[in-house]
Write a structure and sequence with these properties.
177 residues, alpha+beta, 5 helices, globular
Amino acid sequence: MNLIIQQDLKLELIDDHHAGALFAMLNNDKLYLREWMPWVDSQQSVDDTIRFVQHARKRHEAQNGFELAIMSNDSLVGILGVHTIDHINRKCSLGYWLGEGYQGQGFMTKSCQALIDYCYDTLDLNRIEIRCATHNYKSQGIPKRLHFIHEGTMRQAEYLNGAFVDHHLYAKLKSDR
């Protein structure tokens, strides 16, 4: 599965050949990424990242979500994932992150829009959710720009770096397009 967004921006289903670049980005941006993604510390080697990629591929094969590499000019700039597809209720949630040096260029907003269209049109989903820590203002910008509805705040929704944090829950329905 590949989605071409524009000439210099595309989404590729994550595969083993992405592992080296993915590990390098995680390693280089570890301090920055750790604030919102404590799992980054578990990525100690390329082998750890290969295991992550293989797990993502198994989820895709089981039709239970997938991870996409965000590629700009053939360089990995971030990851965008569809987490746990609920086929009965036709819904999923999105998760995403960019390397620190790639923010503010519209990569994530454009990538999320392309993936949302794919989820509605190809996967025939009806509801897409995005959850963000209440203090993660950059991440909250994505659902706001894409006209998701803020449905509420989930108290202590995640244990993050030694403390529970609240999450904002945003959702968009197919009929909201």
